[in-house]
Amino acid sequence: MDVPVAELIIDGSVNKAQVATGNVISQKTYFARLGHATYNLIPNMIRELLAHFIHPNILHKTIPTRDLRYFNLADTQKINEIRDTGYRGLDLTLMYRLIKMYVPSIQTSGAWGNLDNIQGHNVSLGDDIERCRIIRNSITHRSNTTVSYQELNDYFSVFKDVARRFEKVLGKEPNAFVSQFEVLEKCSMDEDI
Predict the structure, then answer these.
(1) Strand, coil or helix: what is 163?
(2) Within 10 Å of residue 127's Cβ, how many Cβ atoms?
(3) Which has more pLDDT, 133 or 120?
(4) What is the per-residue burial (b if ≥16 Cβ within 10 Å, else e) of 101-112?
(5) Spatial CA neighbour of 158 closest among 137, 187, 128, 180
(6) Are the beta carbons of 80 and 63 closer than 8 angstroms?
(7) What's the pTM?
């Protein structure tokens, strides 16, 4: 169900171009876009990064048996299945932990888990992984689904910047990741996409 234009204009979340074209998009649609980016696009990029640094077939050799006690039972089961399934069953939180603990070549500008790492000038690979984690947490732990047009643009600007840097690290064609965010930013958000 579409939100009436008048309601959207009252809360200030509609830009003038949307009103002029009649293409008014609800704030919940913006939240759906962020959700898709958070639960699909960002984890897929991190999966490729993790596989680039630790092939799924050798992860079990990388993690000392004594370290498995630091993971909960569900995560331990996922780790044990990686040799057969690859990284596709891992969520962003577990991949973040694996990178932080077992890929010493990836470091942040400060310490892992430090919010200061997401300053605009900190753009190391570790900073961008940290940035993804922090953004994912800020989106998934929101107290509401209200996302303004400006907020959506701000998030997607960061997503595309990070995607460009990941493309370079992975030796991908330009816009391989970025184009996915560009499509998501503008596409129809019905069930068929």
Answers:
(1) helix
(2) 24
(3) 133
(4) ebbeebebbbeb
(5) 128
(6) no
(7) 0.84
